[in-house]
Amino acid sequence: MQAVGSMATSVGASNLWITGHSMGAAMALLAGKTLAKTGVYVKSFLFNPPFVSPPIERISNERVRSGLRIAGSLVTAGLAFSRTLKQAQQPLQLQERNLSEDPLKALSLWLPDIHVNPGDHLCSEYIGFFEHRGNMEQLGYGAGIVERMAMQHSLGGLLMDAMGVSNAVDVQEPVHVIPSAKLIVNRTASEDYKEAHGIHQWWRDDQDLVSNIYLFK
């Protein structure tokens, strides 16, 4: 991250690209996300970046998938709100919090290219993540607020914090979650997981690619 930050300073963010595959994509994502929080937006190409989550996208029943994601958002948002109330020493302090300071707003201007394959369970949840966010927003203003709060917290971190595990706050923010992205899905049939996760798929000339841009509002 220091190397990327130094390079962005020396040559300018508009003259710099960062990229990676698999774990390298996770490193590139973390570097780009860290810079974006400071208002520096670097063009990023991420191939098969890991999404730390149960592989809900591999469940064939769409209603079950949607139900699990909604339940996860409600639980995560509920725990996050409970933690916020617990940290507030007085009710007035909670009311005086500057709600305009949304950490997702600064990140929303960063638009990395994320390349995923539905057959790769390590990254396929990005597909469901962005679709679910859109579905929650369509359900109404309240559901959108729930999803916004859930996005800013890690369910695992919140559970550890609730159980009194020390330093659990360090894992509160899910590193793999970003508010905006250009999602490129390779729907070309893969023979096995190795092919679905491999970097070689992205330079084939017979790919069935579907691209969508998701902008955080």
Automatic annotation (TrEMBL):
Q: Which domain of life is it from?
A: Eukaryota
Signal sequence coordinates: none
Print the keywords alphabetically. Hydrolase
Cite the Fungal lipase-type domain residue spans from the record. Answer: 13-44
Q: Can you name one GO molecular function term for this protein?
A: hydrolase activity
Report the InterPro entries cross-referenced here: AB_hydrolase_fold, Fungal_lipase-type
- One Pfam family it belongs to: Lipase_3
Q: Which GO terms describe its biological process?
A: lipid metabolic process
Q: Transmembrane helix among the record's keywords?
A: no
- Note the PANTHER family from the entry: ALPHA/BETA-HYDROLASES SUPERFAMILY PROTEIN, ALPHA_BETA-HYDROLASES SUPERFAMILY PROTEIN
What is the recorded name of this protein?
Fungal lipase-type domain-containing protein
Q: What is the lineage of its organism?
A: Eukaryota, Viridiplantae, Streptophyta, Embryophyta, Tracheophyta
